[in-house]
Amino acid sequence: MTPTLQQLASGLGLFLSTSTDACAIAWGRAGSPLIAGASGACENVFGVSDKELLGQSVGTLFVGGERTARDLADAAQSSVSRLLVRAGGPEAARQFPARLELHRAAAGTVALVIDLSAASIEVDANERAADLARFASLLAHEVRNPLSAVKIALQTLERHGRLQPNDLRRAEIAIREVGNIELLLSEVLEFARPPTLSRVPIDPRGPVLEVAGQLSVQWAERGVLVRCSVPERMVPVHADPTRVETAVRLLVRLGALAAEEAGGGEVLVSLNVVPRVASRTSRRWILSVRDPGRTLSVEARKQAFVPFNPSRARGSGLALAVVERIAREHGGSVRLSSLEGGGNLVEMEMVED
Known about the structure:
Blueprint: H1 5-13, E1 22-28, E2 35-40, H2 42-46, H3 50-53, H4 65-74, E3 79-85, E4 95-104, E5 108-115, H5 117-160, H6 165-192, E6 200-202, H7 205-220, E7 224-229, E8 237-239, H8 241-261, E9 265-274, E10 283-291, H9 298-303, H10 319-329, E11 333-338, E12 344-352
Parallel strand pairs: 7-9
Antiparallel strand pairs: 1-2, 1-5, 3-4, 4-5, 6-8, 9-10, 10-12, 11-12
Helix pairs in contact: 5-6, 7-8, 8-10
């Protein structure tokens, strides 16, 4: 006995029981073919149930209508890509890309329909990320070079020019603002760069001490004391030294900006090893930065890791997003909390399996 189109579609649907982006439909060979069978994740793919599809014109599901459906029934190809149309739900009448695996039958055609919109979204997201990386690189190149020339000219004028006290102060402010723009460009580049990691054995105290030492001189002139506290010795860990240094630099700068906004004070940079427990074999270490700045609200702390959403009066809003990415690359996480009596604490945990 020859199986009906409904039986063929149902049989094909048995193989789709765990799929959320595929279904089976079947239609006859009439001049205006109707859907004779449907099964699988029809609601996810077409926005309506398999029962609701039965009896509908198959042409309503295809961009190109009934003619496309008839052409597919006559085609020799067993696998084709087509634009289909949602039949209902919140995306009713919206087109979406799909792959069809066609099977001819005596009474008509049975098609396995695979919704490709999720894959298409992922491809689009990857392309946008690549575009962002290229744009950031171009921006940095086109802005950094002239900016460096401006900075050098201002520094030369500051050192060797015969400036009045007010003009000298203006030159110092201009140099500082150029430095802020350079840091902003660095954050944008770091945020846009493709995730790459090169782990090697390092002493994590090295990047911490080096960055803290460099920034302590710079921020001392602005009323901010950067102090560092690290263990006397640490067992080397596998980490990317460049990425660790980037995270330290961004966190110390955030803390220093917060301290400056509060009128000055101390930023404490600490490095601690988390003691191992019997149930955990991985080694963990925490980089902490404590600042005396304005205490952030609960909502501000939630939004602090959202790109381009600065929680301070100044900044790009990218620093914590970049730091969180670096922590994830090292198997860890970042926490932002408020301190009793005022101030904030950022803790970045890194894990070595």
